[in-house]
Amino acid sequence: MTAENEREIYHKLEAMKEIRNKTITLERLKRSILNEVRSGDQEGRCLAQYKREMELLQQEKMSHVEELRQIHADINAMETVIKQTEESMSRKLSNASRLHEDYRPLKAEVDLLRRQCLGLDRLPDLHEEEGSPITPDRFPAATRALPAGGVGGPVGGVGGSVGGVGAVGGAFLAPAPRKPPPPPAFRSANPGLDQDFLTVSLRQQPPPMKSCLSCHQQIHRNAPICPLCKAKSRSRNPKKPKKK
Length: 244
Fold this sequence. Notes:
This protein is mainly α.
């Protein structure tokens, strides 16, 4: 065998060795590619599931936001109803107090005439009548009676003087003038009520609002976090840092 043949055989052996090493590396790369592709496909299927779950969560979040919006609307409506009911109650109580101021002296006159002219007992008070919703302390001024002889002086029985009868008739025809009714008891007992109503009306003015970038609901302009979806709120016009 000549030296040229030996060199040719040596080159072939070196080439076979290189081919074998590169073939092994190629197979290793091919397996890695297949593994990565399979993993990528699996991740893609998982990603589709995750996106579907995210859509369901977004739908659930919006349903809760709508529920919260409805709850807030119901709360606002109930606050309006409560305010109107309180105003109506105050108005009714004030009217009752004003009417009672007219009723009290007239009842005292009638009781005095019944006792002096006819010898009858007094009429029952409002809280003494059966089934009456009025309690004894509803109108504290009701316990005060008129002074004796407030209706034309005492009347001396059935055969009394003509002057006494005339006084009684005068009491029926022209009762003594009464003072004008005082302001409603509700406001007189609460001198700062008008100021309180003014303060409440000022507090109930709607605050400055902005739209949440996540759920697009109206929130307070200075709220750092949306109270509905809990997303962080970023100002569209952030304050610039002051230069030192």
